[in-house]
Amino acid sequence: MRVAVLAGETDFEGWRQAARAFRQAGTAPGQAAFRVGGAGDGLFDEGPTPPPPDAAPFIVPKAFVDLAGDVVLHRSEDRFDLLYRLLWRLASEPDLMKIVSDIDVADALERARNVSRASHKMKAFVRFRRVEDAAGERWIAWFEPAHRVLERTAPFFVRRFTTLNWSILTRDGSASWDGEELTLGPPATRDMAPTEDEIEEFWKTYYASTFNPARLKTKAMQGEMPRRYWKNLPEAALIPELVAQAAVRTETMVAAPAPEPNARLAKTLSRINRDRSFDEGFVPSRLEELDQAVQACRRCPLWRDATQGVCGKGPGRASLMIVGEQPGDHEDLAGRPFVGPAGQVLDAALEDAGIDRDDVFVTNAVKHFKHEPRGKRRLHKTPSTTEVSACRWWLQAERRLVRPKVIVALGGTAALAVLERKVEVTKERGAGIDLADGAKAMITAHPAYLLRIPDAAARASERDRLVADLRAASAMLKLNS
Ligand code: URA
Fold first, then answer.
1. Taking 80 as the threshold, does the pLDDT of residue 373 lie above it?
2. Mean of the pLDDT values across residues 68-89?
3. What is the per-residue pLDDT for 125?
């Protein structure tokens, strides 16, 4: 038996060199072995035989090299042997990699898929906790990847949390980013990472309040969030209890009477001239008129379950307009846009961007709150394209009156309303887009999206991006005036 000693569990280069030497020397798979670290097996530890001086160099398909790079990260003991068997067979079966039904090829492909899944899960389930010491603020996460994907996946976290100092600790090794350099370090133990921080309680409360028992699909949930990751997810501690309560909570919800329909709207309707908004020729000349007329809107059915229509608020002439999706629960009751939790995120981001909200006209693509009742709660529902189109009449009336030079669309629904086409926010975000009336539009994320990001560090980074976009919109304003 010939044994090659590799420098580490993921030493792909070491394996490649040794495997080449084995194959050139004619060492058959049963006679070649790979060990990680330390000495080999004493008597049998002969190392790869050096290839004869006249051994012909050989080339392997790129598909094999790529696949091998993934399979090496698999935790199975025999992964190096499997790869060497494939390498050996490629000498007489050059098209082997195309035969996906071949037992070795299928096995390698399956292991590569497992590795890719482990990397994906790592991106989704790493939870950083904040620590602060003399050196400043750091975000530390403990993670137990199913396969050895730390080094492979660390660049994702660099891109995502570029402005933070963070470390991810695992049993295989650690990765640290100091804002400039990614360093790979030795294995860690769980007790080296903090177990909780103050943000965690907030996130647990949020998770429990958004958990919708009527939509519970335990199998699907466990498929997406496998149990093996639960112990490092703060919100997972709540799951067994929430699942146990789900049936009871659903029954209570179903049994609860629907909320009072629209009492306030009925009152408003009796006060105003209903016919005006049905008159297509009606052209509001003041924002107050618009405010009143929207209460009689029947352009789509959303008025039925809303307390009232919520038009935009802000100066009658404003160079910056911000468009959200639709009023939420708080806005529906208050009759003003962005006064609830998303509004607080927006206010703080505007402040950080150096923009005074009082100078901005803040409105929504859709003027009525679309929701479905759940017991005492009203769950937000995204408005349909038809509803957004129907409501565009009101947004256009606001734009005619306010005449903004720059319009910031928060999220996909707002972008659809402003640009009159479907938009992928991630693709078009941040750029200035010319509008027919000479104004510029800019698309950014919706503040409510930030509230839904479970991981504190990810949330902070998204918030920075929102502030940067608002700053850019403000700069655009100066160029466009
Ligand atoms: N979300 C919105 O899009 N608009 C609001 O007014 C509040 C929350």
1. yes
2. 97
3. 86
- What is residue 410's three-state secondary structure? strand
Average pLDDT over residues 354-382: 92
CB count within 10 Å of CB 356 equals 9
364's enclosing H/E stretch is strand 360-364
- 354: DSSP letter: T
pLDDT above 80 for 404: yes
Report the pLDDT value the prediction gives residue 275, as an integer from 0 to 100. 41
DSSP 68-131: HHHHTTS--TTHHHHHHHHHHHHTT-TTGGG-TTSHHHHHHHHHHHHHHHHHHHHHHH---EEE
Give me the percent of the chain exceeding a pLDDT of 90: 61
Sort residue 188 into left (φ over 0), alpha (ψ -120 to 50) or beta.
beta
pLDDT of residue 353: 94
The Cα 169–Cα 193 span in angstroms is: 7
Pocket of ligand 1 (CB under 6 A): 324-328, 331, 337-338, 340, 342-343, 364, 448
SS3 466: helix
Bridge pairing between strands 129-133 and 32-36:
unpaired
Which residue's alpha carbon is at the smallest distance from atom 7 of ligand 1?
338
Q: Where are the domains of the chain?
A: 2-120, 126-192, 208-253, 263-479
Helix, strand, coil percent content, the chain, rounded in steps of 5: 50, 15, 35
If you measure from the C-alpha of residue 446 to the centroid of ligand 1, how many angstroms do you get, rounded to a whole number? 9
Q: How far apart are CA 266 and CA 164, in angstroms?
A: 52
Give the CATH superfamily of 263-479. Uracil-DNA glycosylase-like domain (3.40.470.10)
Signed CA dihedral, 110, 111, 116, 120: sign only = positive
How many whole angstroms from 375 Cα to the centroid of ligand 1? 22
Q: What is the pLDDT of residues 299-357, one digit of tens each?
A: 898 998 899 999 999 999 999 999 999 999 999 999 999 999 999 999 999 999 999 99
Pocket test for ligand 1, best of 325, 339, 367 (most atoms within 8 A of CB): 325
